[in-house]
Design brief:
- It is found in: Cell membrane.
- It comes from Actinoplanes digitatis.
- Keywords: Cell membrane, Lipoprotein, Membrane, Signal.
- By secondary structure, the chain is α/β, with parallel strands linked by helices.
- It folds into three domains: 39 residues, no CATH class; 131 residues, Response regulator (Rossmann fold, 3-Layer(aba) Sandwich); 146 residues, Response regulator (Rossmann fold), CATH 3.40.50.2300.
- Helices cover 44% and strands 19% of the residues.
- The chain contains twelve helices and twelve strands.
- The strands form two sheets. It has a six-stranded parallel beta sheet, sandwiched between helices.
- Strand 3, helix 5 and strand 4 form a beta-alpha-beta unit.
- The relative contact order is 0.14.
Length: 346
């Protein structure tokens, strides 16, 4: 699909240059980035952790960076002004007032704000990641099959464990994170039905601090490791850094990251013990939504990213994963074939 779009854009560019060899860069950029002479300005609102979390927000940011490079869009990036509906509403409103269209909200915590601001700006398309509660003609929900990717890293955890005991650290006890837990447990038990899975959540609504508390993540992982777990999967946003720190201090144990390839971004002292990461391709979701907007798809609805469309997967950067990849791939094919239906609740 991208090749077709790139080719079409190239034809437009050649036509523009043929008509006016001395045309300024701004003219060709407008032609390439929109419909007709429309210039596309995209707004993206990160959750409170912002870019630099080496996880969820960074994955979204990668999609925006790719859109800048390949689609030549302009972009405005903001982080939630406060961890409240009012703060998130103000952030989205600022992006819409600034002429950005579409506006992309990173995370389900923006649901209330999207519902408010989408009514104020009916001519702006809003996209929200991980929530489908807002039904409006100018709101599109970008959802992911996190349970499928978590199933695959659960397979890796059970294969790598020498003690038959693994752990799961969830940031906040909400249905979204329970999808990660459910898939992970199912994947581990597909390899070893007797595997023991220790589960800990760092906070529960209305307390969402579990997504940004590395100290809590470290303490939870330390308790699991002390109890005998030797592989710990963290689906806790910025709190995952604490999980990695605890695992790095325990020789012979493994950590599994989430959202982005956290082996690639980890500190050297931690990197060797990050076995793999469950990839949630938020970057693909962000990029493809901007691409669809440019092509004229400006309607609301729901778009789902699963294994079939490379919406989720796992990282292979650490060579230590290689002995387990054949089993993980066999599991992936069973999911794609429909012979395995991964649960979404524990």
């Amino acid at each position: 699909m991208r090749k077709k779009i790139t080719a079409a854009l190239a034809v437009l560019a050649i036509a523009t240059l043929s008509a006016c060899a001395a045309a300024p860069a701004a003219v060709s950029t407008q032609t390439l980035t929109g419909l007709g002479s429309e210039s596309i300005r995209v707004g993206i609102a990160y959750d409170s952790a912002g870019r630099g979390d080496k996880s969820f927000n960074d994955a979204a940011g990668m999609g925006m960076d790719r859109a800048r490079k390949e689609l030549l869009v302009e972009a405005t990036e903001l982080t939630a002004k406060a961890e409240t509906d009012e703060g998130r509403t103000a952030t989205l409103r600022e992006l819409a007032q600034g002429g950005n269209n579409p506006v992309i909200a990173v995370g389900f915590l923006y649901a209330g704000a999207i519902g408010t601001v989408a009514k104020e700006y009916p001519g702006t398309l809003f996209a929200i990641i991980d929530d489908s509660s807002v039904e409006a003609r100018n709101v599109v929900s970008l959802l992911f099959s996190e349970e499928q990717g978590s199933y695959l890293v659960g397979v890796a955890a059970a294969k790598a464990s020498k003690k038959g005991r693994v752990g799961f650290v969830g940031g906040v006890a909400v249905p979204l994170i329970k999808k990660f837990e459910a898939g992970y447990i199912a994947g581990a038990r597909s390899v070893d039905p007797g595997v023991r899975v220790d589960v800990r959540y760092l906070s529960a609504p209305p307390d969402f601090s579990g997504f940004g508390s590395p100290d809590k993540g470290k303490a939870a992982a330390e308790r699991m490791l002390a109890g005998g777990a030797d592989v710990v999967y963290s689906a806790a946003g910025g709190s995952g850094a604490g999980v990695f720190e605890a695992v790095a201090a325990a020789p012979g144990t493994w950590a599994i990251g989430v959202d982005s390839d956290q082996y690639a971004s980890a500190a050297e002292a931690v990197k060797p013990q990050i076995l793999t990461s469950m990839l949630k391709r938020v970057d693909n979701g962000v990029f493809q939504e901007i691409q669809a907007f440019i092509k004229g798809d400006r309607s609301g609805g729901v778009k789902r990213y699963d294994l079939e469309v490379d919406g989720v997967g796992y990282a292979t950067s650490n060579p230590a994963l290689k002995p387990y990849q054949a089993t993980m791939e066999a599991a992936r094919y069973r999911i794609l074939a429909g012979s395995v239906k991964v649960p979404t609740t524990p």
